[in-house]
Amino acid sequence: MPRPDDSAKPTRWAGVPAADRVSARRALLLDAALELLGTEGWSGTSVRAICQSARLNPRYFYESFTDLDDLVIALYDQLIDELREQVTDAVEAAGEHDRMRALVRATVEFIDADHRRGRVLYVEALGNEKLNRRRVETGFIIAGHVDAAGGSGDPLSMITASILVGGFSELLLAWLNGLITVTREQLIDTATALFTAMTDEAGTLPRC
């Protein structure tokens, strides 16, 4: 088992400015949280386990986070920010008629590149009250990106986007778990066609 870091050992942080040390230790804790929460779930995720995985003394945990909830919310926010950046870049680089496909592809590729991300975002987020609230709040933000990619900006298109976001999360989880056995390209093609059809159909409904 890895031994916690000890401040008496100067080699690890020697010559590193104090602010950079804090930032580096915070990153180590976030990486450890992703590994534990993304593989073992809540049952294997604790302050002690995270510190052991990061090889940090527990006192360093509290220089960046108030408690375990604070850490996992920071991890969730980090993953969402990374996903948002990847999706935004893809959508902005796509042509007007390819924005929905770009959004779907970027999301699928982000989750498929590291399945731990999917577990944190779609599974473990449901097992913690504070994290679940953040998940719900974030869902509306993501729906706004979907609306921008395929909607018209009115309440009806936002309702459609919210349904798509919730359904897409369940679809990705089922695919990652092997319950839906299609290739990544088949998933992207089918989801894009379905989402485009739904947003187009929503455009024919009476406006709110």
Automatic annotation (TrEMBL):
SUPFAM superfamilies: Homeodomain-like (SSF46689)
DNA-binding region: 46-65
A Pfam family assignment: TetR_N
Keywords, alphabetical: DNA-binding
InterPro entries, per database record: Homeodomain-like_sf, HTH-type_TetR-like_transc_reg, HTH_TetR
Domain HTH tetR-type, residue spans: 23-83
Record bears the keyword DNA-binding: yes
Name used for this protein in its record: TetR family transcriptional regulator
Species: Saccharopolyspora ipomoeae
